[in-house]
Structure of DUF3071 domain-containing protein:
Amino acid sequence: MHELRVIGSEGGALVVASDGGEQYRVPVDDVFHTQLRRATASTSTGRRLSPREIQAHIRSGMSAQDVAAVTGADLEYIQRFEGPVLAEREYVIDSALAVPVHTAVETDPLEGGTTFGSVIRERLHDLGASGERWASWKEQGGGWIVKLAFTAEHVEHDARWQFEPRKQQLSPLNHEAVTLSQQDDQARALIPRLRAVKFGDEPDSDSDRFDSGAFSVEPEPEPEPVRPTSRTAEIVSTGQTADLLEALRRRRGERETAGFGDPDPMGGAESAPATSSIRLIDVPLDDFPEESPTPPRQDTGPAPKQQARKGRATMPSWDEIVFGARPDDDLA
């Protein structure tokens, strides 16, 4: 085999030459790019992919062509190890379709039960779906995914479930899978029906709304205004209380004054000085005759018991207050 070296390019092709000086032209097409990518990958890695790595890529949902394009490995080499993994993926699909399920209406209670695959195919038949395609793969670090692709009313749908082979359990992952797993009308949920509405049409009343007044709220009654407290009423009430207290003080003063003028029942004993207040009353003396001034009394001697305490005037009696004279003056 002769070795060639690239000396240039011309018209979408490479111009190569041999050691003897002969030149050749190599077209740059898809085959050239594929082989160049594989050669670059093998040169950069320095090793070939192991069968375990190839099967891990196939198990994750990739095809042999995808693995060859990503890794740059030889397609024939990859296809030598994809068979067992493809069989495993088909087995997972068959196991998922054979999972027993229970529907609302059982056709025959004596039978073993309805399978997941028969229920889904019956509902696809009711939808008038076509192009049923099943696939499975294993997520990296997760469980198996079962996919159903179909066409209904010229619309492509993709339903996916998570499948646990050991527990025989299926869990819907998207809207299409949830709709097919329910007992309701699948056609209404998968293919919504739209109604043409004329431009400018408006509902005539609230009864045409979708809620039919379900969200209407009754107005709350307005709170009654708080009337301010009259300042005048407070003043009048305070004034009445003050008048009542003043009247009580007057009555008490009159009683104490009247009790002070009574003679001492023990006779001759000096009365204790009163500590309560005395109310003085002005009495007009115009109707009484004038009296001659009384001569000054002679001092006959100290009277310890009757003499008032030094520096304090004696308390006048009731006659002195009313008539303006002392009882001793009348006797004289």
Q: What stands out?
A: The first strand starts at residue 5 and ends at 9. Strands lie at 5-9, 13-17, 23-27, 100-101, 114-115, 130-138, 144-152, 155-164, 169-172. The first helix runs from residue 30 to 45.
